[in-house]
Write a structure and sequence with these properties.
heterodimer, A: alpha+beta, Cytochrome Bc1 Complex, Chain A, domain 1, 2 domains, six-stranded mixed beta sheet, five-stranded mixed beta sheet, 16 helices, globular, B: alpha+beta, 15 helices
Chain lengths: ~425, ~425
């Protein structure tokens, strides 16, 4: 048993298990995290991790698809999954006395999913439809082009859903091999949080997961992205009336000592946000620098900043919706003016203190529900290899100094290391909203 | 695995929800939860799009956005500096029948948040400069809507299902109507807001009695004899034909479908039966029978589900799906078949049992968070369900029969007469 009452252990087959008792409400959540995402894909099988996640809802010999989706709901539970660039996570939220069912299902589909060829084919059209739905969004189309421009070598260049050509041609065996390689106890973290007895919960998890073979060592396929020398630009011209702009800079990986200083810089520049996918914590961003520079000046109708916690260095993004009658050029200039100010160290003690206060409040909200805690623990253990990253989250944030934020801003916001994207709509047959 | 605690108080009821009606008509409800340091406030006040004339569609929404643009004591910048510097949130939104608000903060900041809520509701200044800022943001968002297949399908469905009815009009408004809204319109709309019948729910790490006193201290002296009563929606007639409209949006990859009917109000006697029938049709498991038929069996769509609104008036009961443009007809045909089954056949005993179990279990999970509890209490109060509603919930669900569900489905659904809106890339239909 570690600090804060978290039990951590590793089963003989390599499965890491984290259990935290909370008795505030009669609910519990169970998560299984796999260290696999689009980061582990090569051309030809892009989108495999996400498609495998879909197939994990298609049944095993014990629980056929027709029964599977009803089992959790019957108990009033909710379940879902996320596939991200670095990881894939499955979870159930149940009345606490029913959480065994979640443990049972997750153990079963870690090893026994059928990947029935007919189901694979039927799911192919569903996944292509999911991609088509995303393509309906101008902001998504622009982001896809931004990734392609930012990452020439690293697999982060592809959206998690995968390239259309791969979705059309990938075979059942491609998917099944991906599943067999990455879905093994040694590549996974199981997390249970809720109104349970930790000792009994561990026994249940050992009983269900203990027999699964540990799997082979997984070779690292990731090729690091070479340095960027000079600004890169992309433009998308498609139908519509609204222009969008995105500016991206090279960020830091989660283990980088300056990751938290960049988080504070993001908060000052674009408003405070949470890294937690289950988060209900929010505050508006109307006192952020970019809101004042873009929205209050009536250049943009809205803006947001995007800092993502990742295994390898990813992007820090600034996105804005260009207001009717204004141009991408005007908004871009205003964004650069603000990032230049940050890079020059023009940051006040007052802004810095506000960012710290906001982080404290959001973190408190994020620790309320069992599912949000389950997310944090699994996320930290999967990405950093140690759940204490979550336990010491606030300590690390509070250790950041104003000088750190200035130094990091100067390092990140360099014009020759940015990627700029414009979505210029071709409404009424003419391009508008660009220059 | 055995649950550690008994959680006798897991389900809120009359013994732990404190309810007080202030002299000026505000109803305050508070429930304590000291397991985390935060507090959530949710509420409803008079207002809403049903109070606006058709040629000013979007006025209520514009007005509620303007409440946060400056008060007698705080400019826009000062207001948000107060809120954001403590990591809190405050949102005010307009629906059809009411103006709603919500806030989350650390418990120690509840007095500040109540003070700011009071100012925004009672002393907004509607600065002219901010009216134009807000108008531009709304106009841009309406232009984005015009190129968004999901939003256009939803908007067009409402127009088809509710002709000559306020539910057929967009709460956000239209480019033409929002362009014509003046500061005077917004100032005049403010008269509608008042304390009578307002509901404020406070849930979290704050003593209930103190929370109630605080609300009384901050809002207890508010009077407005001219305030509006909650607008009632006129009745809506059943759809007896097929009303179809295709909205072409060039350059899109996928088509979005919204199909459905006017449904029951929350107060309708068959609301719960319709709610469980809706779950079987398009919610339970991976989106009910529709999920099975449209997504799982045929691989036609990424999403396919149904939704029942059930508010103050006859809100929609509708089905949504996103499909490849070539599969629109097949998807609609499949949805029609599933609607036909709901209307013609009783659900199976297994489906009924599964769904009852689902609703009962789901209640426990939804009450884990302060947001969930506050939402439930607000729901009980505004629809006058009684403070023991959640405690009686299981018995109420258990009493439903397959016949009840079929009767509710038959009252509102019809496979041969419906409103159908599709938005997607241009094509031959």
């Amino acid at each position: 048993m570690g600090t804060n009452g978290i039990l951590k252990t590793r089963l003989k087959n390599g499965l890491t298990v984290l259990i935290k008792e909370t008795h505030n409400a009669p609910v519990a959540t169970f998560w299984v995290w796999y260290r696999v995402g689009s980061r582990n894909e090569i051309p030809g099988i892009t989108g495999a991790s996400h498609w495998v996640e879909h197939m994990q809802f298609k049944g095993t010999p014990t629980y056929p698809a027709s029964a599977l989706d009803k089992l959790i709901s019957r108990e009033g539970g909710a379940w879902n999954a996320f596939t991200f660039i670095d990881w894939t996570a499955y979870f159930e939220v149940m009345p606490a006395d029913k959480i065994e069912l979640g443990i049972d299902l997750e153990a079963d589909r870690m090893a026994n999913s059928a990947f029935d060829p007919e189901e694979v084919d039927s799911e192919r059209t569903v996944i292509i439809s999911e991609r088509s739905g995303s393509e309906n969004s101008p902001a998504w189309l622009l982001y896809e082009e931004m990734l392609g421009a930012a990452f020439r070598v690293h697999p982060y260049r592809t959206e998690v859903v995968g390239e259309l050509i791969d979705l059309q041609t990938m075979t059942r065996d491609d998917l099944y091999n991906h599943y067999r390689r990455y879905y093994a106890p040694g590549n996974a973290v199981a997390v249970l949080v809720g109104d349970v007895d930790a000792g009994q919960a561990l026994k249940d998890i050992e009983e269900r997961f203990g027999e699964i073979s540990g799997g082979e060592a997984i070779p690292e396929v990731v090729r690091p992205e070479p340095p960027q020398y000079g600004e890169r630009r992309v433009t998308v011209n498609r139908e519509g009336q609204t222009a969008y702009i995105m500016v991206a800079y090279r960020g830091y990986e989660i283990k980088h000592p300056d990751f938290f200083a960049l988080a504070v810089a993001d908060s000052i520049l674009a408003g405070a946000t949470s890294f937690n996918f289950m988060s209900t914590a929010e505050t508006s961003n109307h006192t952020s620098r970019l809101y004042k520079a873009l929205v209050e000046t009536e250049l943009a109708a809205g803006m947001s900043g995007g800092l993502t916690a990742t295994i390898d260095p990813y992007l820090y993004t600034i996105s804005a919706t260009v207001r009717d009658g204004r141009t991408c050029r005007e908004v871009e200039d205003a964004i650069h003016a603000e990032t230049d100010r940050m890079a020059q160290g023009d940051i006040s003690e007052q802004e810095f203190a506000k960012a710290r206060k906001q982080a404290k409040a959001l973190f408190a909200y994020d620790s309320e529900s069992v599912s949000s805690q389950g997310f944090w623990l699994g996320f930290a253990e999967t990405l950093v290899g140690d759940y204490e990253w979550f336990d010491t989250f606030l300590d690390k944030l509070m250790a950041v100094t104003l000088d750190d934020v200035k130094r990091v801003s100067a390092d990140v916001f360099q014009s020759n290391k940015r990627i700029v994207g414009w979505y210029v709509p071709t409404g009424n047959g003419t391009q508008q909203g660009g220059e | 695995m055995v649950s550690q605690n008994k959680h006798i108080h897991a389900i809120p009821g009359p013994d732990d929800i404190h309810r007080v009606e202030l002299e000026n008509g505000i109803i305050v409800l508070a429930r304590e939860n000291f397991t985390s340091p935060s507090v959530v406030m949710e509420g409803r006040i008079s207002g809403g799009a049903l109070l606006e004339p058709a040629e000013k569609a979007g006025l209520a929404n514009f007005h509620s956005a303007m409440l946060m643009r400056g008060t007698a004591r705080h400019t826009f910048d000062q207001l948000f500096e107060e809120i954001e510097s403590i990591g809190a949130s405050l949102d005010i939104d307009s629906g059809g029948h009411t103006c709603s608000f919500g806030s989350k903060s650390l418990a120690e900041d509840l007095p500040t948040m109540l003070q700011l809520l009071s100012e925004t509701l009672r002393q907004p200044t509607f600065p002219a400069e901010h009216i134009e800022k807000e108008r531009g943001e709304i106009m841009t968002s309406l232009q984005m809507r015009a190129h968004d297949t999901r939003r256009m399908a939803a908007l067009t469905f409402s127009e088809l299902a509710y002709p000559d009815h306020p539910y057929g009009s967009s709460v956000k408004g239209y480019l033409e109507t929002v362009a014509g809204i003046t500061r005077e319109d917004i100032v005049n709309f403010q008269t509608n807001l008042g304390p009578r019948g307002a509901i404020i729910v406070v849930v979290g790490a704050f003593k209930a009695q103190e929370a109630i006193s605080l609300v009384e201290k901050t809002l207890g002296d508010w009077v407005n004899p001219a305030q509006a009563s909650r607008p009632e929606a006129p009745p809506v007639s059943r759809i007896t034909d097929v009303r179809y409209k295709f909205v072409p949006i060039p350059g899109k990859s996928q088509a979005d479908i919204v199909m459905g009917y006017p449904g029951p109000a929350r107060s309708a006697p068959d609301f719960q039966a319709a709610r469980v029938a809706n779950s079987i049709l398009g919610q339970f498991g991976l989106m009910g029978r529709l999920g099975d038929a449209v997504r799982e069996d045929q691989g036609l769509a990424y999403y396919s589900y149904s939704q029942l609104d059930g508010g103050f008036g006859p809100g929609p009961w509708k089905i949504m799906a996103g499909v490849n443009p070539e599969n629109i007809e097949r998807a609609v045909e499949t949805i029609r078949q599933e609607i036909g089954r709901m209307v013609r056949e009783p659900v199976t005993a297994e489906e009924l049992a599964d769904n009852k179990s689902f609703f009962k279990g789901q209640l426990v999970i939804s009450l884990e968070t302060n947001e969930g509890v506050a939402g439930s209490i607000l729901n009980m109060e505004q629809h006058q369900l009684g403070l023991d509603y959640l405690r009686n919930y299981a018995a109420m669900i258990d009493a439903l029969t397959a016949d009840d569900l079929q009767a509710a489905a038959a009252r509102y659904l019809d496979p041969d007469a419906y409103a159908l809106a599709v938005a997607g890339p241009e094509r031959d239909v």
